[in-house]
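Please review the protein record below. Let me know how this chain folds according to its tokens.
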Amino acid sequence: MVSAAASTTRKARPQPRAQTSAKQAPMRFRDDPLLWAGWLYAHDGLTQNQIAKAMGVSRATVNNYISEARARGIVNLTMETSRLSEFMIAEALVERFQLSDCIVLPSVREGRSLPERLGETGARVLERLIRPGDAIGMSWGRTMLALAASIGPTRLADLSVVQVTGGSGGEAEFSPEVCVARLATALGARSVNISAPALVSSPEIRDVLMREPLLKAQFDCARRLDKIVFGISSSRLGATIHRSGLFGREDLADPSLQRAVAVVAGRFIDDRGIPVHGRVDERTIGLTLDEIARVRFRIAVAGGPEKTTAILAALRGRHANVLITDADTGHAVLQAEGVPESLGALRGSRRTQVQGGNRVKTKKLINDPANIIEEMLAGMIKAHPNHLRQLEHSPRSVIAVDGPRKGKVGIVVGGGSGHEPTFVGYVGKGLADACPIGNVFASPTPDPILECTKAVDNGAGVLYVYGNYAGDVMNFDMAAEMAAMEDIEVRTVLSTDDVASAPPDQKEKRRGVAGNFFIFKVTGAAADKMMSLDECERIAKKANERTFTVGVALAPCSLPQTLRHNFEIGPGEMEIGMGIHGEPGVAREPLRSADDVTDDILERIFAEMDAPSGSKVAVLVNSLGSTPLMELYVVNRRVAERLERKGISVHATWVGTYCSSLEMAGMSITLIHLDDELTELLDHPCDCAMFRAG
């Protein structure tokens, strides 16, 4: 990928003690040759000669860069975690959405606001790109105002800044007129405003105004843009669009906007990025999205969790070819889009061990990694034709052959691939009725979720049960909203059994891991017994509240797309509490004996599970992928001993691979604190591809 900025000739800002590279660094490295050299060395594994060729400098200069990067702590045979994660997110976004470039800022919780930081970075990017005589289009919003405030004066002649949508009828400090005027003043450029409101009262009035000579001249300028910079707004209640003054409350309540999730330069789009046409669009004065698409550089500057859906929609529609965002938002967008995660650096505070030139590839029995999910599903359906079927028009929607029936609540579970037999392995009679399939370690997209929902809706409603991950929550919520438009009632229960992923006072932030096995089992039984949607929801919540899991990782896994470890752990180390995607745990320690590790895990569970002597539990000792049954049974022996000494009886035990993380070495222990109701549901007969009871 050639950066959009690769052809520019303006000199990068000098860095202390480091020479400016002969070739301009791709924009995602923010003009810092040390970061660029560090990335090529630590991530790409290039030699110093290869780096010198890539950067257009001498080998001696590269040696100086790497020495300086080591001195600053950027590279030390590894690359600093936060820096690596930003660049890997940017690289993944570029590849997925065919961007010219992407700049990802570190996500920070203190200091300046995110719009201010994004605006400042947008200003630096724009400074690199503008040329004499350029016409620069601009939208509106807080981030655009911050960009205008951050940009420095230039000596470039004949610049113009052009308003791309009509004006605001409100008092917003970030209206289109204000943003354009501020940027034009900062650049010493000519300001071209649109002398009409963004929204008029009828399509007929819009057509009359667009024929006015003044407006025609202004739009002639707007249609000859060289660059356009814009924010992305969510269309949901409370978003900036509701405070902008461009659209009134009645306008935003128009039925034609029911499908809208985002606003790009005053134009509404749906979750696929397709323009939402209707009376509001017909009354809007501004460039159309087709006209914006003809601009060579379309720079979107937006971030924040509340904008994830909106940004994803804009990227799906190819409305931007340069994106500036923050790491958390970029990560959430990739998860929601179902992009496989190879971002070891996203795992928190530990340093990602990416050794320059020495990274060993792993071995897998695969064909083309791009087809691995489809090939896995084909093999699974062939192996279990009496349990599973795919929807012909939606092959990533897997439905139980025996399960959905009239008057029964439909149970839909789902998540990313790579955890088999979770999730698709638990589709069958007495368990889940359907499962949408995501890419490896990535949420399924809304479409297969919706198709599963429609396939199992039999008049009693549908219950979603899935792990508490940002991408899953966003896409399942979107599918639920679409199902509601088709008069299907959907409820949601998030599994949060991972004790190590958040403290007791923040249980709502915990992840769902191997405890899904028990939660799916009792919820599926409740639905199979023809309980109501209210009752099934109650049972699922109750099971989740009484299910506790802690895991330990001994060795990493690798993704089919990269064949490289998604994190590293020392030969004599273990990590307590690591998540099933490699999320950081609570303690990295020297490896201890099986009994000591089991005791550590159980103490963490006992601290949360209020189970006095005389209580009853079910036990799951689960392999994370490559840990064999021999070791799992050693662990289970100790679990049974500890429970017996506490006077807690074991109603049932499962040992094996029930929720994996590809080939990760390690295991997890799950206890569900049973009462009579949960015991009866746990014992209820079920029959699925990977599990049978009763």
The chain is about 35% helix and 20% strand. The two ends are 56 Å apart (CA to CA).
